[in-house]
């Protein structure tokens, strides 16, 4: 290791002094992934670049999944003399929302209500101005009304009402509370109490000081409560995201001649839990098994069923059960565990042979995958059976599709294409637009999937109305060793 930056230090947990000079495999690669790391090094030697997801070991011995972009560095003579790579967390869950200053809309009352109800809210200048203007105006109006009905009888009541207003504003924003305490206190003394005491300063200055101290105390207490609430929310969010990440884990393949990327966006925005799921696994004989499914409904129950089906499918794959029998087993599992009769699941199961020449596709009420070669979608016929959870006697028949030497295969759920094609229109985004994006986009891997979801959400005019999941498997043109022929991909 000859280079290490702050981002690597945060991701892996190792300080620069602990990382430099050590072999990257010894430092970061867990024992179970050593052979895969050796295969990746070999792919870099031949092809010059590699991108994919990989398990690494942090300094605290915790394993994390990262998306790695690596390229061979070559000297002036063309001989490889190093590898340059950068990695980011391979997040299978939605990224946390970008925190923005609170910008409530509407009138004074709605903005005040907004910041009072949001413990993490910040106050923008417009809101602060409205708080100060409204608070001072209220104090002035109350003082004039108090003078009109008789000063001596109303000073105590007017002072109590005024300090309540100051404290309410201090709860929202302590600086606004201080300004209202000063300006409002001056209005109160001048309008109500100026002629009552022999010396107005003996009456006004202590009153304003009491208001200022009260506003400071309330503001400090409010800030402490908000900080405590924000800390609790942050802990809850972190635990929730860890739970969501365990329910939708990243796919794991060992072979390096194909790359797999995945993405998931739940339709349930509050809990970030949904019924869509995916999985990708590799058997001992290098057969690839892929799965994308969609459980009806949203929220915790749909997410629990989705996680159960995914785990059951992975166990059936590992046991060597054939694709139709896997779906029959999952069908029985769903019928036994669904709490409502309305729960069902659609599934797309794909098995790719070790030579990457043929795909066996089994559909249970699910859209077929999209296959591309040389940037063009390829048409194929695939039989579709009934969804899981509909009938105990349901059966499914697989379809076989020949794969080209280089291909992209996209498995997706209908939430990707069921949004609107325009915010105000009734037309759906649809599969044709999805195919066009796949064929025309220069992006690959995870970046391509993110572009698709961004385009679909933009066309819809906001978050997609249903859960959306995609699983993309890509096999690029076969590379040849350096020196034998011109390499199939550009050197980095």
Describe the protein.
The chain has 492 residues and is α+β, with helices and mostly antiparallel strands. The chain contains 13 helices and 14 strands. Strands 5, 6, 7, 8, 11 and 12 form a six-stranded mixed sheet that branches. Helix 6 packs antiparallel against helix 7. The radius of gyration is 31 Å and the shape is elongated.
Number of helices: 13
Judging from the principal axes of the Cα atoms, what is the shape? elongated
Distance between the termini: 19 Å
Strand count: 14
Overall average residue pLDDT: 77
SSE series: HHHHEEEHHHHHEEEHHEEEEEEEHHE
Strand residues, percent: 15-25%
Helix fraction, binned, reads: 40-55%
Give the low-pLDDT segments.
92-106, 479-492
How much is the radius of gyration in Å?
31 Å
Task: Summarize the model shown.
It contains 13 helices and 14 strands.
Features:
single chain, 492 residues, alpha+beta, 6-stranded mixed beta sheet, 5-stranded antiparallel beta sheet, 13 helices, 44% helix, 20% strand
């Amino acid at each position: 290791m000859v280079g290490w930056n702050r981002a690597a230090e945060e991701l892996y947990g190792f300080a620069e002094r602990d990382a430099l000079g050590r072999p990257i495999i010894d430092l970061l690669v867990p024992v179970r992934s050593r052979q895969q790391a050796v295969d990746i090094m070999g792919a870099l030697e031949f092809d010059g670049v590699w991108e994919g997801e990989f398990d690494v070991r942090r300094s605290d011995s915790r394993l994390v999944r990262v998306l790695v972009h690596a390229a061979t560095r070559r000297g002036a003579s063309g001989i490889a003399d190093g590898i340059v790579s950068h990695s980011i967390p391979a997040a299978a869950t939605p990224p946390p929302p970008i925190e923005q200053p609170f910008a409530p809309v509407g009138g004074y009352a709605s903005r005040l209500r907004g910041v009072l109800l949001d413990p993490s809210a910040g106050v923008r200048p417009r809101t602060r101005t409205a708080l100060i203007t409204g608070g001072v105006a209220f104090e002035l109006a109350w003082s004039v009304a108090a003078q009109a009905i008789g000063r001596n009888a109303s000073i105590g009541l007017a002072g109590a009402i005024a300090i309540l207003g100051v404290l309410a504003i201090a709860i929202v924003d302590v600086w606004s509370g201080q300004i209202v305490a000063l300006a409002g206190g001056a209005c109160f003394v001048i309008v109500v109490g100026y002629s009552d005491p022999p010396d107005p300063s003996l009456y006004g200055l202590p009153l304003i000081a009491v208001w200022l101290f009260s506003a400071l105390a309330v503001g400090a207490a409010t800030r402490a409560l908000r900080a405590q609430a924000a800390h609790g929310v942050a802990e809850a969010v972190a635990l929730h995201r860890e739970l969501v990440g365990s329910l939708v884990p990243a796919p794991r393949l060992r072979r390096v001649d194909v790359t797999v990327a995945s993405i998931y966006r739940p339709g349930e925005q509050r809990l970030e839990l949904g019924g869509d799921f995916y999985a990708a696994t590799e058997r001992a004989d290098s057969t690839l098994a892929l799965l994308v499914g969609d459980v009806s409904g949203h929220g915790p129950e749909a997410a629990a069923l989705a996680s159960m089906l995914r785990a059951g499918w992975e166990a059936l794959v590992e046991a060597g059960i054939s694709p139709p029998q896997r779906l029959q087993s999952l069908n029985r599992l769903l019928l036994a565990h669904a709490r409502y009769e309305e729960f069902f699941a659609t599934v797309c199961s794909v098995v790719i042979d070790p030579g990457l020449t043929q795909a066996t596709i089994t559909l249970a009420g699910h859209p077929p995958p999209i296959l591309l070669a040389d940037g063009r979608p390829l048409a194929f016929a695939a039989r579709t059976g009934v969804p899981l959870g509909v009938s105990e006697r349901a059966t499914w028949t697989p379809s076989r599709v020949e794969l080209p030497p280089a291909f992209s295969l996209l498995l997706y759920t209908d939430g990707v294409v069921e949004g609107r094609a325009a915010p105000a229109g009734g037309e759906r985004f649809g599969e044709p637009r999805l195919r066009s994006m796949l064929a025309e986009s220069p992006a690959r891997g995870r970046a391509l999937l993110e572009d698709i979801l961004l385009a679909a959400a933009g066309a819809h005019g906001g978050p997609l109305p249903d859960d959306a999941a995609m699983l993309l498997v890509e096999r690029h043109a076969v590379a040849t060793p350096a020196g034998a022929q011109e390499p199939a991909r550009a050197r980095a």
